[in-house]
Amino acid sequence: MIKGRDYIFPNITAEMGRTGYNNKKLAGYLELSVVTIGLKLRGKHDWTLKELEKLADLWSCTLEYLAKKNIPEKEKLNV
Question: Distance (Å, rounded) from C-alpha 67 to C-alpha 8?
Answer without folding.
Answer: 9
